[in-house]
Amino acid sequence: MEQTDIKSLTLEELRAELLKRGEKAFRADQLFQWMHEKLAEDISQMTNLPKAFREWLETEYEYVTLEIVEVQRSKLDGTCKYLFRLRDGHVIESVLMRYHHGNSVCISSQVGCRMGCRFCASTIGGLKRNLRPSEMLEQVYRIQRESGERVSNVVVMGTGEPLDNYDNLVRFLRLLSHEKGLHVSQRSITVSTCGIVPNIYKLAEEDLAITLALSLHATTQEKRRELMPVANRYELSEVLDACAAYFRKTGRRLTLEYSLVSGVNDSREDASALAALAGPLHAHVNLIPVNPVTERDFVEPGEKIIDNFKKNLEKCGINATLRREMGRDIDGACGQLRRKYLSD
Ligand code: SAH
After folding, report:
1. 333 pLDDT exceeds 70?
2. How many Å apart are CA 120 and CA 298, to the nearest integer?
3. What is the residue with the minimal CA distance to atom 13 of ligand 1?
């Protein structure tokens, strides 16, 4: 029989599980604290639990942890990229970014991805499987333990489409922000999606104060479809309607992500069209000059063009941030550390 993954259980589920087995409910609270607040590496570290209880936990349950395969540290900005191995042998990557306002961890939500965005390295080998809540949490926990520094922000922007792994994602978000766990503020968590429309509406109903980021990348349905196959399933207008509904329901401002690709979406007209979409949504725009990916031939625009694009947005009253990828000296764009590992 498959063992229950205890790190993926909510506190209520954990209490019910232990009660059912004849244990006292307060043991669930202690166990939850060891897993999610003290970030215990294994059950044997949980020293205020009776030895017999710990041994029973070890035989009955699965305690998910990640094995570090490789860590790359940037000399430019202190960014660290981690390559982790899961129990079943798959590898995933996560990134620690150090900003003046605190440490941010970018996590993966799936092993691989099936969305097929043309400029993205993470989707090249397709989707292998969804990550469990415990496997998403452990990326944050492990990095906090390794670095010895508090993780204050989490972005779900690594490999995978979080809204394609919806139930596990929502469970992860609740556990990560739980007041008896690591208690990362929901306002400091961002989930980035390529635009799975029904799940944007669903997420709006979850009563979470997280930031939703939409990967827009193009301002017309035709152009978006060329870059992102998901646009064949959900039209741009439907995605924008869902985002507007998300803002109305949650009051949370959205972020629009826009990867600038030379000669594809970087003209003055593109900037005006982007401003016209962002304005009514009260959205903030994140501009990401496209990162070169070995298997792809997209090129980032020159400095002047990037600068003008940003200025054109600002002239229209749109808040825009230029997001240079951090740690450029360590395996380029997102998903590339994993890809390099798989092809070696
Ligand atoms: N599946 C989610 C999150 C993963 S990627 C999503 O689509 O939003 C996080 C962001 O990086 C997305 O906006 C994605 O489109 C962008 N991205 C992926 N590859 C990129 C590349 N080579 N250059 C620039 N941005 C890229």
Report:
1. no
2. 10
3. 215
Give burial (CB, 10 Å; 0-12/13-18/19+) of 176.
Answer: buried
Residue 161 Cβ contacting ligand 1 at under 6 Å? yes
Catalytic residue (one of 93, 135, 138, 257): 93
Whether residue 142 is predicted with pLDDT greater than 70 in this model: the reply is yes
For residues 303 and 262, give the distance between their C-alpha atoms in angstroms, rounded to a whole number: 11
| Residues in CB range of 125: below 8 A, 6 or more apart | 112, 339, 342
3-state SS class at 287 = strand
Residue 257 annotated among the catalytic residues of the structure? no
Residue 152 host element (H or E): strand 151-156
User: Which of 166, 202, 318, 305 lies closest to 255 in space, CA to CA?
Assistant: 318
Confidence of residue 344 (pLDDT cuts 50, 70, 90): low
3-41, pLDDT tens digit by residue?
Answer: 999 999 999 999 999 999 999 999 999 999 999 999 999
Distance, in Å, from the CA atom of 199 to the CA atom of 194, rounded to the nearest integer, reads 11
